[in-house]
Amino acid sequence: MGDVILSTPVLSAIKKSFPTASVSMLVAPAAEQLVAGHPHLDAILTDDEAGEHGGMAGLLKLAKRIRAGRFDAAIVLHPTLRLALVCVLSRIPVRLGTAYRAYSFLFNIRVKQHRKKSGRHELDLNLDLISAIGAKLDRVEFCFHTPQAAQERASHLLKERAIDPQQGYIVLHPGSGGSALDWPAASFGKLAKRIFDEWNIPVVITGSRGEKELVDRVVAHAHTDVVRLDGQLDIKELACVLEKASVVVANSTGPLHLAVALGTEVVGLYCPIEACLPNRWGPYNRPDSVLMPRAEICTTCKKKDCTFGNCMSLITVEQVFEKVQEKLGRTHAVKVV
Length: 337
Prior knowledge:
Elements: H1 2-5, H2 8-17, E1 24-27, H3 32-35, E2 43-46, H4 55-68, E3 73-75, H5 81-89, E4 94-98, E5 109-111, H6 115-118, H7 122-130, H8 148-160, E6 170-173, H9 185-199, E7 203-205, H10 212-222, E8 227-228, H11 235-244, E9 247-251, H12 254-261, E10 265-269, H13 278-281, E11 290-291, H14 317-328
Parallel strand pairs: 1-2, 3-4, 4-5, 6-7, 6-9, 7-8, 9-10, 10-11
């Protein structure tokens, strides 16, 4: 989810630079709902690599579908050999990608980018890539659409649990889908208790259906009433819940970026693994919204050999609580006493 969210300003850049262009986006089926309704997107194509587009036969089927669109250009923000090959098989005349991969010869506009070593944010790297065709964006903007039906459903779920969205609440999102090291479930639980005990602010916990056991552990350590919405929200409903929150606390994960895109205050918990660092994957333009453990940067995580086991446990509940308090001071939805 996060990489898709950080790709969406590219849609705005293209549409503003080439107003008459028709812009389509190729995404996995799970991301289709996320980008639906974007004002600078004309059509969505889905790539079901795990299903109908899997294997060589599926790849050819996808290429045939894309070829029917008679596209003039393809911009491959997150290149793989498979996607580069699809662009060639789709007979797209202009193919833009990065220059340093073994299959980069399949692109005919190649941009010299080493993303892992750049020290720059993923969103800025995306915009740099498309500057090769003259597309630019003077001011980064996110344009996520939350349908009325999703707003009503999210509001109903909250009110059913005695939460008035207008009075403020704090969202904890303890999972990350395995994209990074997570802050311990016990710490999330203790944070929930601290927030409720000291401020009497409702705490909402979100997550996917597959994160039920994780949320169970968070709740077991909270020792207080929390509102569970794990497995109960689609992407648009999750967006509505995040948008109305006073603060969202999360690991490095898609919902954190979604909250940022919606203008919500966040606290992002980041591990010191080189590929996951906040200078590339942090909440965009919000360096003061990040907490990291005081541990050396690792190229890969080797828990068995690590002095700390899970270094994320070095981030204390007190640190996160104080950062949440700082963020609450910037909102008017709740009063901190």
